[in-house]
Design brief:
alpha/beta, 5-stranded mixed β-sheet, Serine Threonine Protein Phosphatase 5, Tetratricopeptide repeat, single chain, 13 helices, elongated, 5 strands, about 10% strand
């Protein structure tokens, strides 16, 4: 491994993990995949090196000549060169390909700061949840990139911060659309409104009043709240068949909401989406 204080180092497959992955635990590493025969690489390389020297330790530039780093190039899915990757805490934060102008490179590097702060806050959540979440709240109020907001929302969800999740979803929805991941979070949030209730008591009431469709819908919602999805879906299908326009429509909407909260390729979703379609069409 080259001098740890050097702003620019050369690496090979033998030292790549130490030079890049381990070094990234200490700070930002920028990896430049290049080759001597590549004219754009020869244009980009000196610019990156100059910026790295001027940065005075803000990041380390690791030069990875593809002829000497075939395994690393495969690991990073390098398709064309030059290819530049930002690595921090063992994870790729961002990348670009081609010989960008110096101003664009500096702008790209500047944009990495938000991602680094996010990674640091995530790490802090593990060791000090209260402090980490407070730091995330502060960062979320400043961040503008949608993909960052989604990351924040997922972390807030995992840590039970529902108000923060809703606030981020509101910001994203103001654009007029939501990504699939955001739609899933929205559905999960909506489904939490079904407290679950006393499922056993509702089952007894339904058995005594089998024609009370509103009661059956209440049981289906309670089952969803308790994550007893197959029974809930079967009830919903029965309601769709018996009362398509009223309780059946609410039951259909409930099923669709649950579908959206689950992975699209989930076997349960595929099975009951098919059954619902057969009833409707």
């Amino acid at each position: 491994m080259t001098d740890v204080n050097s702003p620019v180092i050369n690496t090979t497959d033998k030292t790549f993990d130490v030079d890049v992955m381990e070094r990234s635990r200490l700070g930002l590493v920028v990896v430049d995949f290049w080759a001597e025969w590549c004219a754009p690489c020869r244009m980009l390389g000196p610019v990156l090196e100059q910026i790295a020297v001027e940065a005075e330790g803000e990041f380390t530039l690791v030069k990875a000549e593809t002829d000497h780093n075939p395994n690393a190039a495969t690991q990073f899915a390098v398709g064309g060169i030059p290819a530049v990757f930002a690595v921090y805490q063992g994870e790729v934060l961002d990348r670009f390909e081609g010989a960008l102008p110096e101003a664009a490179i500096r702008e790209w590097l500047s944009g990495l700061e938000g991602q680094i702060n996010l990674q640091d806050a995530i790490a802090l959540v593990d060791s000090d949840p209260s402090a980490g979440l407070e730091q995330l709240r502060s960062l979320a109020s400043e961040v503008g990139r949608d993909e960052f907001l989604l990351k924040f929302a997922k972390i807030f969800w995992d840590n039970g911060c529902r108000e923060e999740v809703q606030a981020i979803l509101d910001r994203l929805e103001a654009r007029g659309f939501l990504e699939a991941e955001a739609e899933q979070l929205k559905s999960m949030l909506a489904l939490e409104s079904h407290s679950g209730g006393d499922i056993d008591d509702l089952r007894k009431q339904v058995s005594l009043a089998p024609d009370d469709l509103a009661l059956q819908l209440a049981l289906a919602k309670a089952l969803v709240g308790g994550k007893e999805y197959p029974e809930a879906f079967d009830l919903c299908l029965d309601l769709v068949e018996r009362d398509r326009q009223k309780t059946g429509e609410e039951a259909r909407e409930l099923m669709v909401e649950v579908f959206k909260s689950m992975p699209a390729d989930a076997e349960l979703v595929s099975e009951y989406r098919r059954k619902l379609s057969m009833l409707l069409f």
